[in-house]
Amino acid sequence: MHTVAVERAARYDPSEVAEAMDRALASLGGMDTFVRPGERVLIKPNMLAAKAPERAVTTHPEVLRAVIRLVRKAGGIPLVGDSPGIGGFRAVAEKSGMAAVVREAGAELVPFDEAVAVPGSGLFRRMDVARPYLEADRLINLPKLKTHEMMTMTCAVKNLFGAVVGTAKAGWHLKAGADRELFARLLLEIYLLRPPDLTIVDGIVAMEGDGPGSGDPRPMGLILAGANAVAVDVVAAELAGIPKQLLWVERAAERLGIDGWDRSRIATVGLPPDDARVPDFRLPHLSDVQFGIPGFLKNRLRHHLTARPVPNPEGCHLCGACLDACPPRAISVRDGRLHFDYHACIRCFCCRELCPDGSLGVRDGVLLKLLKKFKE
């Protein structure tokens, strides 16, 4: 059995967060169960982009503060690192409020700017992963609970994609991002390279709608914690009301026999699930209807079966972030406007995820529109 602690923290008041964290960790045996004196402990938050904490794009700094405190109390040496999706590491750390907390709490910021080649554990034979991620004595995963237009939810397992350094993320999106099942397998194989010792989820204010960068903050008032990241994801999705058929990572974990996917083998402690569930959690835009469709038809009807990103000229400042974020380089600027090559576009929505102005919309293909009307 796996244990996932669920505790209530209604707001980011430092004392309230600290008390909820203490209760959650006590249910798991305390931080001493996961950290030994003198160990270098890498804390890996979500540092997607340089956004203010109230935008709910990144892990909130008060959650980070509470974890650093517990690591130091257990005698560990806290390090805080990630590789942002867009922007420099220091800039993201400052804007998100995490750099200030790291300085105040006596921790150390560690940028993921050096990669180490390691053999893969399955389909992907080689991966380049951040050196600090591999070399730390302990790893604490500190994700934000958010929706994700490609994978439906980003939480514990998806947060570990940040172990891939900088521009290499685009290469993996290009290699695996056109197929959600394949990308889910990639995420799980990254997870298996170095499973976190502990995962703690910032669900105090989550993100719903068109996450992970352009959704809306949604108060949930929750802290989740557990030793198995897949099991933590399963409980997080349950509390947000996300149906299993939309959870690509969890479905892939079941198919591959990766421990943690079976809800019947997960015990929750602390707040009862019925008291923690959030009603009407708004999911991301349905971007395809390819379930169960033969491959040869998917390829022929792809333009009609999927949604695609579209520019909003009124909000676009032509900053170039979407051009840099696009793995297949399907975006260009012509006559002062964005232009998309939809034959090259792989529908990964990295452009929407990393647009600093939220100025990219979504347009459904004809068959996708018809299916939505039929379901209504």
From TrEMBL:
GO terms for molecular function: 4 iron, 4 sulfur cluster binding; metal ion binding. This is DUF362 iron-sulfur cluster-binding domain protein. InterPro entries: 4Fe4S_Fe-S-bd (IPR017896), 4Fe4S_Fe_S_CS (IPR017900), DUF362 (IPR007160), PSI_iron-sulfur_center (IPR050157). Residues 307-336, 337-365 form the 4Fe-4S ferredoxin-type domain. Pfam families: DUF362 (PF04015), Fer4_10 (PF13237). The keyword Zinc does not apply. Keywords: 4Fe-4S, Iron, Iron-sulfur, Metal-binding. Gene3D superfamilies: 3.30.70.20.
